[in-house]
């Protein structure tokens, strides 16, 4: 509310600041890994680069959820599906790059197909030997699924908890489908044993550095996109649909299209996050479709602060760093800790970390303004006319 | 339009018709072409309950009408039918004399020029008063146009004008969430004006308002009625008297009585409905 107003005023400043930070991390972390000798105090070990590269993908995924949940109020419990689909599209490209280096040495068929006694490549695997084709599919597959799903769900005016449940069912159905060997996506084991990406070894530090930088750039572009959407009239319309859908309808808008656009754009973002994630972790399997994964995304976003741009990014990184540390110490109890965290945030920080901080900052500003007013020191009209730029 | 309605419609019917006439014929008088809203023989039932029963109602261009009636009389359902939220089981609903509203959905009807204020004030609480009005302004409605839209000087001028009409100028940059109940009602009326509608349907605008706010709302609506057709649904008899317009009393989904406030409130059927239960 007032936070939203403040956010809009300070939007460009916040976005520029986060872009600078994200890109600086994207350049400095790999540089500290590649350029500094192993003994140097600022040297970043390779496993940290891989770990943080993963977090950057999660951050982009959380940001994509924020676009639909924070701005339009659609609580998607199936965003993991779009992430996994993007991941599978990239995984299929990486599988085709293995060539004769697989266990069975077949030049076109991936190992699992040889194992299943398949004689030729299924039609939906053709084209994936080309990177450009895979890159298009990374966006098209999740985007198309979201569009078709959203078309039916939003036009039938399915909202609230019912929509959340069917998104959850969607990701669960996809998980069951991808577990089947007959689907042609490697079944239970998924896609793994990748060798090259664009001709470079996927294991080398240089490739990992490039993937890290790519993830940071993708995240920065995501921030830019969500920021630009949020600041446009469409962005205001998204929030309007969230706050009073019926009102927008009786003003002559079609809220189902507002939702459909955001949902599809968000799915494409999630797909890109998945595509960058897969080469960095080296595997994609149907477990990524698990409903629990989608729920975790919601928790990251809630912890950071939905409806803000940097909130979900901070939430994704903090929760996952916490997860890495926690699972090292008490591996059995992580899910309990996650559940407790979600309850605590819902009860004590309903706006999330960033939302609460901004609210506090806003209150502080008003307090200062009131104090100045009492002391009779006026800052002139400029301070109270912030929206002249509109 | 049905043949019978044509046959019953008298040419050059004067503006005022007594409630008895309407009740007797069960059909609206006058040409459909002369009306801005025309409902004839409309019925709708929900799970066997007849919410609207053979309702006939017509509104002339530029007219302001008050609709009263006890709870469950079908006032809100009538608005649902006009705005496309509810499809009638039978009957005719026309806008501007020739547009069949039963063939269109809510956004299409809203864009044609029918604005609706809800019973509960419904504004965008996440936005400032200014943004609420900007979103309501007629014009940009498609997603792709709204992505690139920049506010024009004309839009700015209209926002300033509406802020003055609704007396919300000093609250322009305030979040809608922090407005008082009455201010939210006025903002919503302002949003209707921003749509540049031909007809405004206003559902219980003064419910929960103080006396001063009620008087202010009556002034605002009379102001609006000078350039728009308005239907006001209200329980508050003092307010309806204040508006000084023709009154339609609904009961069990059809018109019970119609005429001046004095005529309607003296009608024995109306008295029975209001006091007899």
From TrEMBL, chain A:
The gene is urtC. Pfam families: BPD_transp_2. InterPro entries: ABC_transp_permease, ABC_transptr_urea_perm_UrtC, LivM-like. PANTHER family: HIGH-AFFINITY BRANCHED-CHAIN AMINO ACID TRANSPORT SYSTEM PERMEASE (PTHR30482), SLR1201 PROTEIN (PTHR30482:SF4). Keywords: Cell membrane, Membrane, Transmembrane, Transmembrane helix. It is a multi-pass membrane protein. Signal peptide: none annotated. This is Urea ABC transporter permease subunit UrtC. The chain crosses the membrane at residues 12-36, 42-61, 68-90, 131-154, 161-179, 209-232, 257-277, 297-321, 333-354. It comes from Pseudohoeflea coraliihabitans. It comes from the Bacteria.
